[in-house]
Amino acid sequence: MTRIFDDPADFADDQLAGFLDLYADRVRGVHGGVVSHRGERPQVAVVIGGGSGHYPAFCGTVGPGLATGAVVGNIFTSPSAAQAYSVGKAANQGRGVIFSFGNYAGDTINFGIAAERLRAEGIDTRIVVVTDDVASSDTEEERRGIAGDFTVFKVMGAAAAEGLGIDEVERLGNAANAATRTLGVAFSGCTMPGEEEPLFSVPEGHLGLGLGIHGEPGIRDVPMLPARDLAALLVDDVLKNTPAGAGRNVGVILNGLGTTKYEELFLLWRHIAPRLRDAGCELVEPEVGELVTSLDMGGCSLTLMWLDDELDALWRADAYTPAYRKAGAPVAALREPTADELADAEAVVTAPVAGEAGRRMAGTVRAALAAVESVIRENEHELGRIDAVAGDGDHGRGMVKGVTAATARIAECGDDVGGGWLLQQAGQAWAERAGGTSGVLWGAALESLGRHLGDTADSYPASTVAAGAREFAATIQLLGGAEPGDKTLLDALLPFVDELERRVGDGADLAEGWTAAAGIATGRARETAELRPRIGRARPLAEKSLGTPDAGATSMALVLTAVGTVLTSGEENA
Amino acid sequence: MTRIFDDPADFADDQLAGFLDLYADRVRGVHGGVVSHRGERPQVAVVIGGGSGHYPAFCGTVGPGLATGAVVGNIFTSPSAAQAYSVGKAANQGRGVIFSFGNYAGDTINFGIAAERLRAEGIDTRIVVVTDDVASSDTEEERRGIAGDFTVFKVMGAAAAEGLGIDEVERLGNAANAATRTLGVAFSGCTMPGEEEPLFSVPEGHLGLGLGIHGEPGIRDVPMLPARDLAALLVDDVLKNTPAGAGRNVGVILNGLGTTKYEELFLLWRHIAPRLRDAGCELVEPEVGELVTSLDMGGCSLTLMWLDDELDALWRADAYTPAYRKAGAPVAALREPTADELADAEAVVTAPVAGEAGRRMAGTVRAALAAVESVIRENEHELGRIDAVAGDGDHGRGMVKGVTAATARIAECGDDVGGGWLLQQAGQAWAERAGGTSGVLWGAALESLGRHLGDTADSYPASTVAAGAREFAATIQLLGGAEPGDKTLLDALLPFVDELERRVGDGADLAEGWTAAAGIATGRARETAELRPRIGRARPLAEKSLGTPDAGATSMALVLTAVGTVLTSGEENA
């Protein structure tokens, strides 16, 4: 729906005033439209136009290498002959004027009258009509002009910028039109400024094949298609209309009509490009985007211009306008990375050689993760139940996915790597597969713990592990932005780390300190799980990043307890 | 609504595949996103990113002078740390990596983890977070990043392209963010691929002030405003947030969110630009268009970046990416027309000096047009009634408007001009004011008749006038594209011309021949008005250009008869 306007009747003039303010450094307004500032040498004036509502057609493509002027009519309405005459006269640089526009009755008449008036004043004036829409008629003379406007204007704009004379520019424009074919589809209608209802509509779940850019009748309504099938429809129908004697090279436009977004067009292009190539086409500098729109209409069109050598060069030429800018130089100056650079970018970081202590730690890490996987699987349902009180109930599932990915990843690692490396690998796998913010935090915390411990120390005394636990918690605090009391896993983790540090500082061994601290965490988690959700506005990060507060503390306590059991049994085994 | 997709779950990957195919000459795909091909010299890698659905953010602005790489997450979802790490590593050219993104929890966490991983591999990695949305929080740290992403990325991209070191690029990025403020409004929600209902909605007839680009809560809903008031709201609220110590120069973005069209944005710009200037701002190379979108969301935002000398130069710098291309040179090479050129373009065509016969004809033309105005006014209602049978009933009104404008225009012409000139003036006025295709045809036909007769002949014998009538009819045939029998004014006009030529050829004087021929026209018009509309498909031009066929022939006959009366009484007076 069109939402921004003052008096809807003045929409076309009002938007033009804004356009002229914005681009005052390169165009000037004249009665009826827009004229480009002049280049170094006089050139044939290519004056395009038609109704408003099609931006960037028409004034958005005025500038070096494209149109010299644009006549701007009311929305979807031909400009008057007086407007076309005025713009043509202002655009003329002494080398003649070519009017070019899509084949609609009003435009044909008004530009025709303007041309007569200019000729009567001695200004050589020609007319090149665009007739690209294969859906509108079987005969070229009766076809409408739609997105193929752009290919024709582009060719003439480039030819005029090269300094060619009016006969040549006219001839090339007609050649471009003869080589251009478009088929469009509409998904939804467009709404005129000030109106509540669209100008026309497409039946729900359908697309209008061949619908015109002002809602003119199409060929038929067909049920909406997946992108792959839509691409096939467009490509095959346009190719059916290949001009006689056409070569392999084609300039291509996949044009969006307004509401259809660039991402949708790219998705469609993914199917269109290979289908065209399979049909033997060589795609020359394709354009995917909005070139001829129809207010907020939903839909798109595919345009092919078959290129001979002349058209090929003009299609590739540089242009610089408000809406369409093309310059070969910046792209030509780029290069793909060298083999060395690629190797750098893709270098897989390999495990450092682990010392004896590091390799011993690897055994503990494997045992601990196995125990964690086991306890998490046992409690998956209960964690989901707690989470569902205030969240979406997927915490158990997420934890299972994370820890399963972690144990699978370390199972792939060789026996000679250290525990620090295993923790880093486990963390990366956990983050990638668990999904959600708590999965990312668990993964990052494990990774930072592993990096902190490393694999090259001579030994891993309890104080080193306690410092690692602090690092683990700090990573979660830093990335998650939550604070104690926000009802997150920190409410179990931080008391655990505090107690572990205190016990180890007092001389306790690791298993003993860990087990005691895990007991504290379990108590806190129970309190947290039972508390009602905190009232009031949480900080945005805490709110978003730790959306499953109750269950998060509980799963943390379960993990810590399971690891404690492993550490204890490990000491007993040692 | 998002319409083009295959499996909605794969939308982000599928669209990226199309993008990579399209721009294979300048970017390459890597795990997690896109990396620019390399320039001549290694530069600091500016790696931007976030979820999909915001095109051209983020991959559309990768290229010389802007981002070095973009991480591409799922729709409205942060990319994973593994994706960000992969793109950062591939983008690194040995001079370090700066991750930059809008301030959202998921992005902060994932880019943070990726940065840690890169640093662990010895790659200097920095983070610049964008926090421009003044509606989202009172404190900078908690503000979201929206369209201000672009100003920050642009500044860093230009700084990196200049070859500055990572400390400098980071400093300038943070300075750009500190100098940037945005306020957005939403008119309508956006729809995820495969969904029928929008993700959120704005109450009918309202706009959501400060709504986030994923539908996050705004400040409040306010009733929809005319463009002038909407501009005032945006400008005043952004200016209220002017940073301390800001100067006069501002880079400006008026950003469209998806469904809001360029023409609407230009219309809004018409009010925004003067209001900013009135507030003392110097507008530096403003951008109006889509830079950060939100699928098919309706709405827009205003971003200001207050520029010191450093930021000013970087904002103005050239850039060349798929979606954003800027080059000063083509515009700098343009010039406004000289005074002579302007005089040529604006030269008013003056009446040629009329001979005696031409001046005598002027009297007949004035009398004839007065008689035509009188008979058309008398028959306005009847013409409307006939037209309403198959058309929109406005033919009488249109004829009155046309002839009234014509008589008013010739009343302004001096007594020394000829009848040929008066007919040309009358025709131009008629076409401009009557509206509709029949008005344009009447105007063009009168103009060509006047041009045919001219004002310099020694006499105007009946044969000259008959040839002029043929010219009058030929103009309508040529411009309108209709044929006899299409139920248009030609069905009265052509028999008239045939009969006039025949009578004059047989030696009749003008008044006699004209009156007899007008009688034939009246008879044919009556038949035409009584016939049922022709069944079958009319040619498009005939159908469109002559939409009021019955009434058109009738008004033609009325005019011809009235002119005949004037000619007869003129001969009697002579």
UniProtKB/TrEMBL annotation, chains A, B:
GO terms for cellular component: cytosol. Residues 7-324 form the DhaK domain. SUPFAM superfamilies: DAK1/DegV-like, DhaL-like. It comes from the Bacteria. One of its GO terms (biological process) is glycerol catabolic process. Signal peptide: none annotated. It holds the Pfam family Dak2. GO terms for molecular function: ATP binding; glycerone kinase activity. Keywords: ATP-binding, Kinase, Nucleotide-binding, Transferase. This is Homodimeric dihydroxyacetone kinase. The lineage of its organism: Bacteria, Bacillati, Actinomycetota, Actinomycetes, Pseudonocardiales.
